[in-house]
Amino acid sequence: MPRPEAFFxxxxxxxxxxxxxxxxxxxxxxxxxxxxxxxxxxxxTIQGLAVAWLTMVLSLGCDSLPSFAVxxxxxxxxxxxxxxxxxxxxxxxxxxxxxxxxxxxxRRLPGLSESSSSSTLPELVWIPFNIDFPLHLAPVITLxxxxxxxxxxxxxxxxxxxxxxxxxxxxxxxxCWVEYCASYNNTFPYPFLTENPLNIRVGIYxxxxxxxxxxxxxxxxxxx
Length: 224
Hints:
Blueprint: H1 4-22, H2 30-35, H3 44-64, H4 69-99, H5 129-136, H6 138-150, H7 156-185, H8 191-194, H9 198-222
């Protein structure tokens, strides 16, 4: 029998994240982004959303078929990727949004909307909270709730060997992908990458990867 509280959490999470992805079409920059190499999947946020969504879909499968060991293994592997990724995305996004929004928000281009004012703030394209929440808060909240309430902590071997390999693969993969897209688009999805040379960007990729690994270790250590 599936646990009703777990089934409810996973079902709500899938619905909310699906709504967030579908709502990308309502953003003023949607057309421009879709026309670029990589589209919305240039953004680590969208990749993180996709992995979190997959994790929750697998969780629904585990709720319905609790004895299906292969499905359970796939969910645990997906969670190892999704959890630190969502935590890092939310931490970096909300920190920059509150204190240095020009480093995380794209600027409004001429012709996309009504005339801009002379101040710098209206030039930034702000995401409405009803879309921002599914993209930048719902994944980390639901993944943390799932991990702490319905999952076992990862083993010492998984934390010391599996997690670093996952972070290395994901960090290297995204760095190569975003650099590849930028070589066609002549810009990066995030201003803090566009405004920095290659050596600084490499440092950012390394820092964020270590942050993800550290967050995973911390969350696993805090798990009862």
